[in-house]
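User: Second chain of the day. Same drill as before.
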Amino acid sequence: MTRQYVDCREFPSDMNCSVAIAADTDQELLEAAVQHAVAVHHHEDSPELRQQIRQLFKEGTPPMAVSRKQPA
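Assistant: Same format as last time:
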């Protein structure tokens, strides 16, 4: 399995979160991303949240810089 990541910098937020999380397994990445979403972004841990996060996984490692999308 290849390394995967999810990067908060790619999504607009009021807090301009700069966290990117990478892991060697899907399960490890999912657990870390869910913990971050709940603790920092105040989401509720639910099957829906976990599915949404899984859909954001990308192969590789996060880039050093990311163009931020502006909040709508």
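DSSP finds two helices and three strands in the chain.

User: Great, on to the next one.
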